[in-house]
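Inverse folding, one chain.
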């Protein structure tokens, strides 16, 4: 099962990828998490990516393509994977095809811009393992603490309202065209991302023909 999740920032890509990863038994490859971890570790990729991320811009395609190509060549991806946040541009989608990486389904999580802005204000993430929560819709068991690894949750710097507005602009300008791209290839499935996490997950499983 080779999947990718498309959607505006905060549409629920990370949350749904993690649930799908557990249910389908394939790894999630989140380019955002890989880049944040590279920034944390001070690697050359992290240094190159930081200023783009902080401004809500896309990291250059060649950086992303290299990261994803390397990660997908690891043995745990042999039986499938879930891409979270990649591709985000037509050149990235074309690079996957050029590298022989065929996606079975592309799931677009549809959420209005107004809902996104409201959601982002409540998002909290784990700086260590990348798990994502929402103070109201998906709270951790213990306030401010990651269920998965016990670290203290933070607000992502790029979740500041003005950066979220920029990221939404970038989504509409560069990423939304991928719906058309994958629609023409017969791979696109759209899912209502404004419903509950469980409801959206059931719809995704139905859309890809997997059992709930
Ligand atoms: P995310 O965690 O998916 O919201 O990604 C956070 C940020 O990382 C984005 O706003 C971009 O700056 C960068 N990023 C993540 N994935 C990509 C990608 N596929 N292409 C370009 N930039 C990306």
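Residues assigned per position:
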């Amino acid at each position: 099962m080779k999947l990718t999740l498309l959607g505006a920032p905060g549409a629920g890509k990370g949350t749904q990828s993690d649930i799908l990863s557990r249910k389908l038994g394939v790894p999630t490859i989140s380019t955002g998490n890989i880049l944040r971890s590279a920034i944390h570790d001070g690697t050359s990729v992290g240094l190159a990516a930081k200023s783009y991320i902080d401004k809500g811009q896309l990291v250059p395609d060649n950086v992303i393509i290299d990261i994803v190509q390397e990660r997908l060549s690891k043995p745990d991806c042999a039986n499938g994977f879930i891409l979270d946040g990649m591709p985000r541009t037509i050149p990235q989608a074309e690079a996957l095809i050029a590298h022989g990486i065929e996606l079975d389904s592309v799931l677009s999580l549809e959420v209005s811009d107004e809902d996104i802005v409201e959601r982002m204000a409540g998002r909290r993430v784990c700086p260590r393992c990348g798990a994502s929560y929402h103070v109201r819709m998906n709270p951790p068991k213990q306030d401010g603490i990651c269920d998965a690894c016990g670290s203290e949750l933070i607000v992502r710097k790029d979740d500041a309202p003005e950066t979220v507005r920029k990221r939404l602009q970038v989504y509409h300008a560069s990423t939304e065209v991928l719906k058309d791209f994958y629609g023409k290839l017969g791979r696109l499935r759209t899912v209502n991302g404004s419903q509950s996490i469980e409801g959206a997950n059931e719809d995704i499983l139905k859309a890809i023909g997997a059992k709930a």
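Residues 9, 31-32, 35, 52-53, 56-59, 64, 85-86, 88, 92, 158, 167 surround adenosine monophosphate (CB under 6 Å). The longest strand covers residues 2-7.
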